[in-house]
Amino acid sequence: MLYLKSFTFPTDGEEFDVIINVKEKCYSSFYPFKILSQRGIEKIDFEPVTIFYGSNGSGKTTALNVIAEKLKLERSSVYNKSSFFNDYVDLCGYTLKGMAIPANSRIITSDDVFDFMLNLRMLNEGIDTGREELFEEYRKIKSGDNGKFRLRSLDDFEKLKRITSVRRNTQSMYVKKNVGVNVWEQSNGESAFMYFAQKIEENALYLLDEPENSLSPQKQMELVRFLEDSARFYGCQFIIATHSPFVLSVKNARIYDFDSCPAAVKRWTELENVRVYYNFFKQHRADFEK
User: Could you tell me which CATH number the domain at 4-112+203-288 has?
Assistant: First the structure.
């Protein structure tokens, strides 16, 4: 599915007109001005899957965040904007493929995934603490209740419900009903993949910033299949910033090489990062064929 058809960034001349007006204020940085224009990036045309490839500092994440801000997409983690970020976004434009951007569209960054995994860890630690407290409560109620309990307040009523639960359940059942089971029973990679599976719904535009982080090669290939199916069968459009050879191999993706100037559309097998992997394994081919 195609929702976002194209996106335009300010030209070098348009940037100059804005920067010259604030030069006298002695700012040391005009970010995100002069980042993408130096790469010759003025317009991006999109496919159902479009990928921004480039090394660190190439501007691929900057472009992703600018697009997300211009489209007012939902995001979880806070993005630290510079003093000129909104001025830059105001100079950008876009065209749609005949319909509005779906309301459930969003940008997903590596910070979102890390925060999700950290929250799972913290939640699980809290559950473990609660479990020990409930075991102790169970033992106290079981040993101290001799049928003499009397209702005197609403607090007593809550306590009665606890006592009734203790009488009717084994210790393990009592604890499980009150705190549930551990949620942290997966690896970081499995939890990261679960985050994408939860957040990516049908019929929406998604911007993904380096989704390969925390994912093993096997999980990256699983993510690739998930993205391909979501784009082909479930009405999703993806714009992805990555340098993972696995993610770059998504079928029928339009790939912009931000390391070239001007940025050019290339096949994934032409990209420098992928060629490094290819040449490395080619050199060690004999080791694999022993």
Answer: 3.40.50
Q: 270 phi and psi, to 5 degrees? A: -90, -15
pLDDT for position 286: 92
Q: Which helix (H) or strand (E) segment is 233 a member of? A: helix 217-233
**Element of type H or E holding 246:** helix 245-248
Contact call for residues 109 and 209 (beta carbons, < 8 A): yes
33/261 Cα distance (integer angstroms): 17
Matching residue, tokens 């994934």 = 268
Q: Can you tell me the distance from the alpha carbon of 174 to that of 132, in angstroms, rounded to the nearest whole number?
A: 12
Q: How many CA atoms lie within 13 A of 7 on its CB side?
A: 22
Share of the chain above pLDDT 70, in %: 71
Amino acid occupying residue 203: N
Query: Tell me: the pLDDT tens digits for 253-275?
Result: 999 999 998 889 999 999 999 99
Alpha carbons 101 and 133: distance in angstroms, whole number: 48
Instruction: Map tokens 């510079």 to a residue.
Output: 82
Rounded to the nearest 10 degrees, the angle between the axes of helix 110-144 and helix 171-179 is 140
pLDDT of res. 55: 86
Write the DSSP string, 165-201. HHHHS-HHHHHHHHH---S--S-HHHHHHHHHHHH--
Residues 19, 21, 22, 28: is their CA dihedral positive or negative? positive
Residues in the chain, pLDDT under 70: 17-29, 118-139, 141-189
Predicted local distance difference test score (pLDDT) of residue 149 = 53
Map residue 253 onto helix, strand or coil: coil
Domain positions in the chain are 4-112+203-288
The pair phi, psi for residue 28, each rounded to 5°, is -85, -20
Per-residue pLDDT at 289: 86
Rg (CA), the chain: 26
What pLDDT, on the 0 to 100 scale, is given for residue 86?
87
pTM of the predicted model as reported, rounded to 2 decimal places: 0.76
